Amino acid sequence: MTIAIHESALIRHFNTRKETLRAWEEKIGCRFSPFRGFKMPDSRLYIEHPDFLDSIVDLVLTNERHIFIRGPVGSGKSTLMLLALRDLPTLMDRRGNRFVAGYVGMTGLYEKQMAAAIADSLRVKYRRSWETSQIIDAISVECVRRYIEEKCRTALFIEDVADNQEAAFHKIRYLADLPTEEMKDSYGTALDEPIVTLIMSGTMEYWNAMLNYLPQIADRTEPLDVPPLDNAKAKEFIARRVAYAQGKIDTFDKDNIDVYPFAEEAVRCINGAAKGNPRDIRMLARGCEQVAAEDFRRTGDPTVTQKIAELVADAYAVILKEVH
Ligand SMILES: Nc1ncnc2c1ncn2[C@@H]1O[C@H](COP(=O)(O)OP(=O)(O)OP(=O)(O)O)[C@@H](O)[C@H]1O
Ligand SMILES: [Mg+2]
């Protein structure tokens, strides 16, 4: 049997484009596109906001308020959460408490799914047949036990918190308010401070919704805005990704950044259009890669010029507006 394979115009176009990109990547010494999306954040690609991370950690350590990491889509909320999550188990608060941390990254959860996700993330055992309230009880009992017996507070990271069902939210609130009055009565001074800290994320719209619908939590929560990348950081963002794709990230010199093949003005233009939003910077840089690759095929010069950046920024202006 023979199968005739006709290369369609679309596939031909696709392959040509792939080859064009490949040639450009090869020219600048990259093994793959520097601007592709990576599933897990690699800390070597991360542009630090040390003050911001400090302020999150300080708030957790002082144990006075919950935290809402606030920012537009793609501003880096999840990335920050994962970093804070990673650092927390190495820290100790003023009273000598350590931390057990859990992370709920799924959204759109009903109350039982939320309860189960929290239990899983904190490694609390429960039965599938249990009601939501039984699962939540098991979690709170374990949080109390960890606090009293192991001197461990609980930090619970919940992504895009307002994207969950409202009923799920009320379960979260119960945990946020621990210890209960009865617990305080029975344990006395052994249990005289909050034992669960929530670190939530979401956009400004969701924060406002929370203020309106759940003032009980919002009143005790500190909103922290994810800072946008300034031009120097945007440059580092692009340069790190190029170095990563070149296999040179481990010798990256933060104090001596070469942003080749991007022109400095191109970086400024990209960052202006992206308003310092890392996801948008990545999208625009990828667009620039495509145009630069076409130019490279014709002229032999791989530079991402200011002109290319302006062209791409204009083309993406509409898309970026729709995304936000
Ligand atoms: N400080 C940073 N340094 C380097 N890359 C970053 C930084 N912050 C975010 N990114 C990258 O930008 C992209 C978006 O980040 P992230 O998913 O954390 O944003 P988000 O605010 O959680 O978005 P969403 O609202 O869609 O959940 C990811 O590819 C991430 O790796
Ligand atoms: Mg996110």
How is this fold's topology laid out?
Elements: H1 9-27, H2 50-62, E1 66-70, H3 77-87, E2 98-104, H4 111-121, H5 132-150, E3 152-158, H6 166-176, H7 181-187, E4 196-202, H8 204-213, H9 215-218, E5 221-225, H10 231-245, H11 264-274, H12 278-299, H13 306-323
Parallel strand pairs: 1-4, 1-5, 2-3, 3-4
Helix pairs in contact: 1-12, 4-5, 4-6, 10-11, 11-12, 11-13, 12-13
The protein binds adenosine-5'-triphosphate (ATP) and magnesium ion.
The site of adenosine-5'-triphosphate has 17 residues, from α3 and α12.
**Average pLDDT level:** 91
Distance between the termini: 52 Å
- Biggest sheet overview: 5 strands, parallel
Could you tell me which ligands this complex binds, including any ions or cofactors?
adenosine-5'-triphosphate, magnesium ion
Strand order within the widest beta sheet:
2-3-4-1-5
Residue share in helices?
40-55%
Give the oligomeric state: single chain
Q: What is the annotated CATH architecture of the largest domain?
A: 3-Layer(aba) Sandwich
CATH homologous group name of the largest domain: P-loop containing nucleotide triphosphate hydrolases
CATH domain topology of the largest domain? Rossmann fold
The topology string of helices and strands comes to HHEHEHHEHHEHHEHHHH
Q: What low-confidence regions span 5 or more consecutive residues with pLDDT below 50?
A: none
- Described by the principal axes of the CA atoms, the overall outline is elongated
- How large, in whole angstroms, is the Cα Rg? 24 Å
Structural category: alpha/beta
CATH class of the largest domain reads Alpha Beta
Domain unit count? 2
What is the strand tally? 5
